[in-house]
Amino acid sequence: MDLSVERPWLRSYAPDVPATIAPSEDSLVDLLRAAAGRFGSRVALDFFGATTTYAELDAQVTRAAEALRRLGVGRGDRVALVLPNCPQHVVAFYAVLRLGAVVVEHNPLYTEQELAHQLADHGARVAVAWDKVAPLVLDTAGATSVETVVAVDLSAALPRLKRWALRLPLPKVRAARAAMTAPAPGALSWERIVAAAGPLAADHPAPGPDDIALLQYTGGTTGTPKGAVLTHRNLRANAAQGRAWVPGLRDGAETVYAVLPLFHAYGLTLCLTFSVSIGATLVLFPRFDLDQTLDAVRRRPPTFLPAVPPIYERLATAARERGVDLTSVRYAISGAMTLPPATVELWESVTGGLLVEGYGMTETSPVALGNPVSPARRPGTVGVPFPSTDIRIVDPEDPSHDRAPGSAGELLIRGPQVFAGYWRRPDETAAVLLPGGWLRTGDVVEMDPDGFVRVVDRIKELIITGGFNVYPSEVEEALRRVPGVLDAAAVGLPGAGGSEEVVAAVVLHADCTTDEAGIRAACRQHLTAYKVPRRVVVVEDLPRSQIGKVLRREVRARLLAG
């Protein structure tokens, strides 16, 4: 680490958290092998009660790797995964890596156009897809390099009794079966090709730490989807940083709930790599469902829960109302959006455990900062830099110039988890990766004397009205204080003289009687005049990412379109 960088945050670390982590020369494949060696008989995966031990998982991965090898997958090839959370997703992820190939994760709810754009960009010839969306992937073949689609039947991973129940000729059962699986003509069967394959040869070349492990598509700082290149070293480092950040974790004794999608960087690292690194049992949910999650709590109580604020609010409220015991959850990590202090208070009162907020982006594998997992945490901040991670706060117009202590500026990050660049986009890579290994985040932050960081807003979403800077999050915070306002998004729309107007889209309670004038008047109590929305548009819902984050770019586009 560069000793010229001052690190006031080190004194804010929880006890026993190291300042640095040792770099690993192993790959993610070695991560799974180590877990199978140490915890072979421990349950690695739980899917609605169907369990897979670490020894069984390792064996399934070697068979799946051989099946993919027979399809022509080799070192450096990209393989598209278009899957919800399920055991087959975990197996496919590690099988692709075992061949030295590259995983590319995709949201199975994407439209054909969204999928085609990404598939054409990375050039995968093989795709492993949920059978319900496999026809969609097949339809992209003319515009992409995809030659082979392997369809995954989620119901095949269910417990035997549940699989049998899905055959019953009842309307409710038919609906449940249709929601989980569907015919995929033209695609190969994942279950059949894996069953027909023997184990991959033990001497098959394995990947190295600096080989590419993952292409994860992200809007980055520009909003244009592009593949972030993450190496085995990047992802192993972030798993090790997460392990070091929570010294109270017990290897081989934790239970992690995968309520976040594995196809998102946040869910992927916290569930697919971090969980394996500590030999945890991973309880998989195809999507977050409140009833399914509470049923699982009774069967296999969680001890560690990575999620987003709305999930914590819904779980804690429902658990309290239904008398479900959540006190097994000792640690909970929140990310992707602002964590309200009221949510922290509710969650900790129900569980007795800690809920802390962190910060990251796809380009940092994804976690770079976190609140100490101790009473020293500071709600309202995203915490302090992880071990082996440095930060600077700079002038957004001249990132070579550091801002004065306490001043807001753009956050730069440097550490072993920082990505290798954007897939085949050298100009965009050069724009965000600066000399010395510093990553431009595009986020405006402030840091207090103890190293705690508060996110002010995104540079690209800054609203400039009458020459003044308006941060959307500040406006949204004021709007959410208005009685009857459920949620809000503030954006800048073209105004007179080349300036912008602050315009807000709000979601209201069904019984809300406050009108636009009343909302604007209430905002004036908390905002200076130029920050008060000129217009307030009532909408039924706000567009969100797959993990629930409001997409301001889409809000702006919809408002512009009327």
CATH class designation of the largest domain: Alpha Beta
Average pLDDT level: 92
Point out poorly predicted stretches.
Answer: none
Query: What value does the Rg take, in angstroms?
Result: 24 Å
Global morphology: globular
Which homologous superfamily in CATH is the superfamily of the largest domain? ANL, N-terminal domain
Per DSSP E runs of 2 or more residues, the count of β-strands stands at 28
Distance between the termini: 51 Å
Fraction in beta strands: 15-25%
Number of domains: 2
- Give the proportion of residues in helices: 25-40%
Q: Determine the number of helices (DSSP H or I, runs of at least 4 residues).
A: 17
Structural class: alpha/beta
What is the CATH architecture descriptor of the largest domain?
A: 3-Layer(aba) Sandwich
Q: Biggest sheet: strands, sense, closure?
A: 8 strands, mixed
CATH third-level topology of the largest domain = Rossmann fold
Write a concise synopsis of the structure shown.
Pfam families: AMP-binding, AMP-binding_C. This protein has 562 residues and is an alpha/beta fold.
Describe this structure in words.
- Residues 474-549 form the AMP-binding enzyme C-terminal domain.
- This is Long-chain fatty acid--CoA ligase.
- Pfam families: AMP-binding (PF00501), AMP-binding_C (PF13193).
- Helices cover 31% and strands 25% of the residues.
- The longest helix has 17 residues, at 54-70.
- The mean pLDDT is 92.
- Strand 1 and strand 2 (50-53) form a beta hairpin.
- The strands form six sheets. Strands 7-6-5-3-4-8-9-20 form an eight-stranded mixed beta sheet, with helices on both faces.
- The protein has 562 residues and is α/β, with parallel strands linked by helices.
- The chain has two domains: 25-439, Rossmann fold; 462-560, GMP Synthetase, Chain A, domain 3, CATH 3.30.300.30.
- It is globular, with a radius of gyration of 24 Å.
- The chain has 17 helices and 28 strands.
